[in-house]
Amino acid sequence: MKRGRNLPQIKLSDTQKDKLKDEIKAFYLDVRGEEIGMIEQLQLLQLFEEKMAPIIYNRALDDTKKWFGQMMENLDSDYYTLYKNEDS
User: Whose CA is closest to 21, among 54, 63, 29?
Assistant: First the structure.
């Protein structure tokens, strides 16, 4: 299985971007006590999209694979639990 294939870049809708920029602005104001301008908000959002989104996406894939594997183990166990004794 190939890892690291070139997947399309994750794109956010304008509404999602606006919400995240508001979150960045609020974070800076609440945590750092600083105002952050629109350009800085956009730059941070672009940094997160380019650098963090693939890491988070890959982690979600790994977690999903692990969950799916556990479900398949349960399925195998449940399957044999349903078997009827043929010796009766």
Answer: 29
| Residue pair 28/43 in contact by the 8 Å Cβ criterion | no
CA distance 70 to 88: 33
Type of residue found at 74: N
**pLDDT tens, N- to C-terminus, the chain (88 residues):** 556 566 566 778 899 999 999 999 999 999 999 999 999 999 999 998 888 888 988 999 999 999 999 998 888 888 888 887 777 6
C-alpha distances in Å from residue 32, one per residue of 25, 35, 44, 46, 82? 10, 9, 15, 20, 59
Burial of 65 from C-beta contacts in 10 A (0-12 / 13-18 / 19+):
exposed
CB atoms < 10 A from the CB of 40, how many?
Answer: 15
